[in-house]
């Protein structure tokens, strides 16, 4: 299956910006037998690319400096990606980061009292560790309904579990925290999802991957209750959202920003 992506991120500032720097992780990953980038372009208005590099997680990173005095920054990326049938199984671990790194908790994925209590509900009656992971995914979405506006980018797994709803980022963080607590390396994935009921979206997607002996990495989309398939484009991975965020940045000055995201993913 070949998917076409049109993704625009616009920042409008209420006053001229003296200086700002944005870090983009918007380039999909090539992985033989799973996904292949046919073409991909990133265009910027109101800023200029300063540097491109590959980080320690194998993510392509672009650093964008916002022009002095700018009141708007627009980031457009578009392209086509060829997807194969892989049913959520990524396979053996690769890259510079040792596997044990993905057992390490982060501020967003620390397993506190609530995460530990959640894993205790799973019990032991499962045919395999993979079956238990799917049961965990189902338990998370049953415990924390998908609701927009209840959390933000700094909400931890523990805080989300104590709330009344969350989004895909929160579901992924809770799953990662729980799987690490159970002894499995786990990581965060940001990317694109072609939805069956609509083309236009207002945000990118996020899910999690856990590592199992003799199989490797397997993806789990907790929010949608299944493993990723041909409708999913993997873009960036990391220990949590901060490692894999599509756009992160900093700026000097008192200007306030308004963020608008426009996204289309279609076959």
Automatic annotation (TrEMBL):
Residues 160-224 form the Transglutaminase-like domain. Transmembrane segments: none annotated. Signal peptide: none annotated. It holds the Pfam family Transglut_core. InterPro entries: Bac_transglu_N (IPR013589), Papain-like_cys_pep_sf (IPR038765), Transglutaminase-like (IPR002931). PANTHER family: BLR5614 PROTEIN-RELATED (PTHR33490), SLL1049 PROTEIN (PTHR33490:SF6). This is Transglutaminase. It comes from Sphingopyxis witflariensis.
């Amino acid at each position: 299956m070949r998917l076409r992506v049109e993704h625009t991120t616009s920042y409008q500032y209420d006053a001229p910006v003296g200086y700002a720097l944005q870090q983009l992780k918007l380039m999909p990953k090539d992985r033989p037998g799973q996904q292949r980038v046919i073409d991909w372009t990133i265009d910027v208005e109101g800023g200029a690319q300063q540097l491109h590099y590959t980080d320690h997680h194998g993510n392509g990173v672009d650093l964008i400096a916002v022009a002095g005095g700018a009141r708007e920054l627009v980031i457009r990326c578009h392209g086509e990606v060829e997807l194969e049938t892989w049913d959520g199984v990524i396979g053996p671990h690769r890259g510079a980061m040792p596997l044990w790194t993905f057992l390490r908790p982060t501020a967003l994925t620390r397993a506190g009292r609530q995460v530990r209590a959640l894993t205790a509900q799973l019990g032991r009656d499962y045919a395999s560790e993979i079956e238990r992971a799917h049961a965990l995914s189902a338990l998370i979405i049953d415990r924390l309904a998908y609701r927009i506006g209840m959390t933000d980018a700094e909400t931890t797994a523990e805080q989300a579990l104590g709330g009344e709803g969350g989004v895909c980022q929160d579901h992924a963080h809770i799953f990662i925290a729980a799987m690490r607590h159970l002894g499995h390396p786990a990581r965060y994935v940001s990317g694109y999802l072609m939805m069956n009921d609509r083309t236009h979206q207002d945000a990118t997607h996020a899910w999690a991957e856990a590592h199992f002996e003799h199989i490797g990495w397997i993806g789990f989309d907790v929010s949608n209750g299944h493993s990723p398939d041909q409708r999913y484009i993997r873009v960036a991975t990391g220990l949590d959202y901060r490692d894999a965020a599509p756009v992160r940045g900093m700026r000097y000055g008192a200007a306030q920003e308004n963020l608008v995201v426009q996204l289309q993913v279609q076959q």
